[in-house]
Structures are given as C-alpha cells and as structure tokens.
Q: What sequence folds into this?
C-alpha cells in the first residue's frame, strides 16, 4: 500500500474508533496535512474500498474500515498509546494494596473495563472464568439493535465452550483477533494474553475497539503479573 493511502486508512480507522461515524473526504483533507484536494482523497478512498480495506454504509458517502482494514492497521499502522499516568497509578496501587492474587487479577479486569468501556474475561483455568464490563459493551452503538445484542449475548452464554479454542489461539505474546479470526464471534475484536501457568486475560469489544489502548493496558498489566 502506498504511504498516502496508509495515512488515509490510519486516519479513517482512528476516527471511526472514536466516533463510530463514517469518515468523509473533507475531514481527511483537513486532518491529513497533505496538499491534496477532496476529489483526490475520494479517489484514494475508492481504491482502498476496491481493495477491500474500506466499505461504506448505504446511507452515507463516508467510509468505514472492513476487517481487512483493521487487520492492516494493527499490523502496520497502529502506534502505542501511552497509558495515562492516572491509570498507571490505579493499577500500581492495586498491586500494592491487594495481596490475594485472584482478587488482584479481578481488580485488573475491572480497571481495564472502566478505562476502555469494553468487556474483560479472565480465565484462571479452563473451568474458572470471570468476566466484567458486559453492560459497557452492550452500550456500544454496534449493539443497540436486538439482533446484534443477541449475538453479543451469546458470547457470554457460551463463554466456557469457547475457552479451549481461545487458549489454542493465544500464545504468551499479546494476540489481536478481529472478526472472523475471533473465536467469540465475528462482530467483535479481541486483545488477549496468557499469564501464569494457565491464566488468560482478554478484552472484548466491537470490531471498532481501540486496539492500541487495549494492547498497552494488557502489556502493562502482564509485566506486573
């Protein structure tokens, strides 16, 4: 992909993550810092759509990322989001104040959910599973209609059935699984890692989730664990 297209794709993904609104050419002209016209941007967007990185809702001229677009973004364009010091302090305080290892990990899960607005699943082993932040996940724009809500609800109804597949899919490094690659369902994105001997920590959000923020939080907590 050419550098200009990469920049436009990055801007589209990051704008859509924040707003859940399709991104138009005028916004990209303003934000890109490039000396290009709106028609030129529209041509580039059309090419990115033809290549499968973008799509557009029927009711809008703006574009949104596809699974392929998100995958390209996380593999090539995503930058590390620095964790806010306030968040680091909360996590470090929990490490100092909570001596019970299970309660500590559950505390981490709650903190992550509060910071990201996503759901968090912790598996201490394949039979001992804890999750939090489901109501935050359900409040995301993607899950406001009943069909989507039913689909995402099934994730937690069948959580234990999917854990074995998750343990196979995630290694010791932080894994990002998007859409079709996600054992929990193609309407979601997931950032996860293993910890300890049998533990698994996973953040689940819409495909539009902020992968950079989630990766940095998981990385920071993994180091503490």
A:
């Amino acid at each position: 992909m050419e550098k200009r297209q990469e920049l436009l794709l990055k801007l589209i993904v990051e704008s859509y993550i924040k707003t859940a609104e399709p991104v138009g050419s005028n916004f990209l002209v303003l934000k890109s810092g490039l000396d290009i016209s709106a028609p030129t941007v529209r041509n580039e967007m059309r090419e990115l759509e033809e290549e499968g990185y973008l799509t557009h809702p029927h009711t809008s001229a703006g574009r949104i990322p596809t699974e392929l677009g998100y995958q390209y973004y996380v593999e090539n364009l995503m930058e590390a989001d620095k964790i806010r010091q306030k968040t680091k302090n909360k996590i470090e305080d929990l490490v100092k104040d909570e001596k019970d290892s299970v309660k500590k990990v559950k505390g981490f899960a709650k903190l992550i959910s509060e910071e990201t607005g996503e759901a968090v699943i912790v598996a201490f082993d394949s039979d001992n599973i804890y999750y939090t932040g489901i109501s935050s996940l359900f409040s995301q724009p993607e899950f406001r209609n009943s069909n989507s809500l039913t689909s995402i609800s099934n994730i937690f109804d069948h959580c234990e059935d999917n854990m074995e597949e998750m343990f196979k899919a995630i290694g010791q490094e932080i894994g990002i699984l998007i859409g079709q690659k996600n054992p929990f369902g193609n309407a979601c994105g997931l950032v996860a890692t293993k910890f300890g001997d049998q533990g698994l920590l996973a953040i689940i959000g819409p495909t539009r989730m902020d992968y950079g923020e989630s990766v940095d939080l998981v990385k920071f907590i993994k180091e503490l664990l």
Remarks:
- The mean pLDDT is 87.
- The longest strand covers residues 188-195.
- The radius of gyration is 19 Å.
- Strands lie at 54-55, 64-65, 119-125, 128-132, 175-178, 188-195, 199-206.
